[in-house]
Design a protein that fits this description.
Blueprint: H1 2-11, H2 14-27, E1 33-37, H3 43-49, E2 55-60, H4 63-76, E3 81-84, E4 97-103, H5 112-122, E5 123-134, H6 140-148, H7 154-171, H8 175-182, E6 187-194, E7 198-205, H9 226-244, H10 253-257
Parallel strand pairs: 1-2, 1-4, 2-3, 4-5
Antiparallel strand pairs: 5-7, 6-7
Helix pairs in contact: 2-3, 6-7
Bound molecules: S-adenosylmethionine.
């Protein structure tokens, strides 16, 4: 029921998926192997498939969403391999994909660090992953304004706002949390940009010939602006100090999502 509700409501903002698909398609050569992690109804994959001869796979944990996405791809006359599976335990061999996208889903993952590690594993060396998600500090006034512009009826509008307030913002991450989790996967570089309500994270898997990946997020600060770099450096130094203590207080986000303190 939730899957059907989501499919109908997001289908009203199809422009967003078309615009993203166009942006991505412009950057990808023909034949590129693309993975969308958690595609839900599959709108992005389907729009991308209309724009070029890419080999596109979507992996979602929900059987209902997989069924809906397959049906929509067939109605749209495009070929996308929609499969059921978990982001933190993907049924793909190492180094399979040239590009990966994960939109509006990361905050829902039960093992976020495990999911990042899997994303990195299935990407080919030197390939790029894009994660788009809500940021924890997204202002509720802006959320309300955007939801008002989504073309929903009064009930769905109220329900969507309630979902943002009570669930989505609660599960969302801050930029610092993202940077920390990414430092626990094998990615080489991380660029986190703030958009209206969220982040667009662009991250690249280390190539074979490159030095060992970054382990502390003070290196990720190379990507951000000077002010943030200064603040980030202080935080990173403090964090590294605390990580060196025997009782490390480094957060374990996978454990926390499973309800442990
Ligand atoms: C809000 S929907 C987003 C769908 C789509 N990416 C979009 O932009 O419309 C979140 C999706 O994440 C999927 N999901 C949640 N946890 C997952 C996991 N561990 N592995 C794979 N998919 C997951 C859900 O089934 C759902 O389809």
């Amino acid at each position: 029921m939730v899957a059907k509700w989501y499919t109908t409501n997001t289908g009203k903002s199809l422009d967003e998926f078309t615009t993203l698909a166009q942006r991505v398609a412009n950057e990808l050569p023909a034949g590129t192997r693309v993975l969308e992690v958690a595609p839900g109804p599959g709108y992005f994959c389907i729009e991308l498939a209309k724009l070029g001869s890419f080999s596109i796979t979507g992996l979602d944990i929900s059987y209902t969403f997989v069924e809906i996405a397959r049906k929509k791809a067939s109605e749209g006359g495009v070929s996308v391999d929609f499969r059921q599976g978990n982001a933190s335990s993907m049924p793909f061999a190492d180094n399979t994909f040239d590009f990966l996208v994960c939109r509006a889903a990361f905050k829902n993952f039960g093992k976020p660090v495990g999911a990042l590690q899997e994303m990195c594993r299935v990407l080919k060396p030197g390939s790029q992953g894009m994660i788009i998600d809500l940021r924890k500090d997204a202002p509720m006034e802006l959320i309300n304004r955007l939801v008002d512009g989504m073309g929903l009826n009064a009930v769905n509008k109220a329900l969507t706002k309630l979902t943002f307030r009570t669930m989505l913002l609660k599960n969302a991450y801050t930029k610092e949390q993202f940077r920390y989790m990414l430092s626990q996967a094998n990615f080489r570089s991380v660029d986190i940009r703030e958009a209206d309500l969220g982040f667009e994270i662009s991250t690249t898997k280390q190539s074979h010939h490159e030095p060992a990946p970054l382990r502390c997020d003070h290196r990720a600060n190379q990507q951000i602006d000077d002010t943030e770099r200064r603040q980030g450096r202080d935080r990173a130094v403090n964090r590294m100090r605390s990580e060196r203590r025997p009782s490390s207080r480094a957060p374990d986000y996978d454990r926390q999502r499973r309800g442990h303190p």
